Amino acid sequence: MPGLQKEKFIVPIGPQHPALKEPAHFEFTVDGETVTSASVRFGYVHRGIEKGTENRNWAQAMYLLERICGICSHVHSTTFALGVEKLAKVPAPPRAQAIRQILLELERIHSHMLWVGVAAHEAGFETLFMYSWRDRETVMDILETFSGNRVNYSANVLGGVKYDLGPAQTDSIKRGLDYLEERLHYYMKIVNSDESFLRRTRGVGMMTTAQAEELGAIGPTARASNVARDLRVDSPYLLYEQFPVTIVLGSTGDLQTRFVVRIQELFESIRVIRELVNHIPGGDLTVRFPRRIPEGEVVMRTEAPRGGLFYFIKSGGGENPVRVKVRTPSLRNFMSVLVGSVGHQLADVPMILSGIDPCFSCNDRMIVVRREPGKETAS
Amino acid sequence: MSNIPAGLPKPWTNMLNGLKTWARVNSPWAIHFNSGSCNGCDIEILATLTPRFDVERFGIKLQGSPRHADVLICTGPVTTQARDRLKRVYDQMPEPKFVIAVGSCATSGGVFQGCYNVAGGIDQVIPVNAYIPGCPPRPEAIIDGVVKLLGSLQEKKPEVKK
Question: Which residue segments constitute the domains of chain B, with CATH numbers given?
Answer without folding.
Answer: 29-157 (3.40.50.12280)
